[in-house]
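Many introductory courses stop at the sequence. We go one step further.
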Amino acid sequence: PAPGLGLDHVFTLSVPSMWRDTPAPYGPLFLWIGRGISRLTGENIVEAVLFHRLVVLLGVGMIVWATPRLARRCG
Protein backbone atom coordinates (compact mmCIF):
# COMPACT_ATOMS: atom_id res chain seq x y z
CA PRO A 1 0.00 0.00 0.00
CA ALA A 2 2.99 2.36 0.33
CA PRO A 3 3.14 3.63 -3.29
CA GLY A 4 -0.55 4.50 -3.39
CA LEU A 5 -1.07 5.76 0.14
CA GLY A 6 2.33 7.04 1.23
CA LEU A 7 4.61 5.84 4.01
CA ASP A 8 2.87 7.81 6.77
CA HIS A 9 -0.67 6.59 6.04
CA VAL A 10 -2.34 4.60 8.84
CA PHE A 11 -2.97 1.61 6.53
CA THR A 12 0.66 1.54 5.38
CA LEU A 13 1.95 1.74 8.94
CA SER A 14 -0.12 -1.33 9.89
CA VAL A 15 1.66 -3.48 7.26
CA PRO A 16 5.18 -4.76 8.05
CA SER A 17 7.75 -3.32 5.64
CA MET A 18 8.69 -6.75 4.24
CA TRP A 19 5.11 -7.16 2.90
CA ARG A 20 4.46 -3.66 1.55
CA ASP A 21 5.52 -4.32 -2.04
CA THR A 22 4.38 -7.92 -2.47
CA PRO A 23 1.42 -8.72 -4.74
CA ALA A 24 -1.80 -9.82 -3.08
CA PRO A 25 -2.30 -13.61 -3.02
CA TYR A 26 -6.07 -13.19 -3.29
CA GLY A 27 -8.27 -13.59 -6.32
CA PRO A 28 -9.97 -10.78 -8.22
CA LEU A 29 -13.37 -11.21 -6.52
CA PHE A 30 -11.86 -10.76 -3.05
CA LEU A 31 -9.89 -7.72 -4.21
CA TRP A 32 -13.02 -6.25 -5.80
CA ILE A 33 -14.97 -6.72 -2.55
CA GLY A 34 -12.09 -5.22 -0.56
CA ARG A 35 -11.96 -2.21 -2.86
CA GLY A 36 -15.68 -1.65 -2.35
CA ILE A 37 -15.30 -1.90 1.42
CA SER A 38 -12.44 0.60 1.31
CA ARG A 39 -14.54 3.04 -0.67
CA LEU A 40 -17.41 2.69 1.80
CA THR A 41 -15.37 3.02 4.98
CA GLY A 42 -12.67 5.47 3.92
CA GLU A 43 -9.87 5.47 6.49
CA ASN A 44 -11.89 3.97 9.34
CA ILE A 45 -10.09 0.71 10.11
CA VAL A 46 -12.70 -0.52 12.60
CA GLU A 47 -15.53 -0.14 10.09
CA ALA A 48 -13.43 -1.83 7.39
CA VAL A 49 -12.72 -4.81 9.65
CA LEU A 50 -16.41 -5.08 10.56
CA PHE A 51 -17.44 -5.02 6.90
CA HIS A 52 -14.85 -7.70 6.07
CA ARG A 53 -16.19 -9.83 8.91
CA LEU A 54 -19.71 -9.36 7.60
CA VAL A 55 -18.55 -10.69 4.22
CA VAL A 56 -16.97 -13.67 6.00
CA LEU A 57 -20.20 -14.33 7.93
CA LEU A 58 -22.15 -14.28 4.67
CA GLY A 59 -19.69 -16.83 3.28
CA VAL A 60 -20.07 -19.06 6.34
CA GLY A 61 -23.84 -18.76 6.01
CA MET A 62 -23.61 -19.94 2.39
CA ILE A 63 -21.49 -22.91 3.51
CA VAL A 64 -24.06 -23.81 6.20
CA TRP A 65 -26.82 -23.55 3.61
CA ALA A 66 -25.00 -25.57 0.93
CA THR A 67 -23.42 -28.38 3.00
CA PRO A 68 -26.61 -30.37 3.76
CA ARG A 69 -27.77 -30.01 0.17
CA LEU A 70 -24.45 -31.29 -1.15
CA ALA A 71 -24.52 -34.15 1.37
CA ARG A 72 -27.99 -35.19 0.20
CA ARG A 73 -26.91 -35.07 -3.43
CA CYS A 74 -23.74 -37.06 -2.85
CA GLY A 75 -25.41 -39.60 -0.58
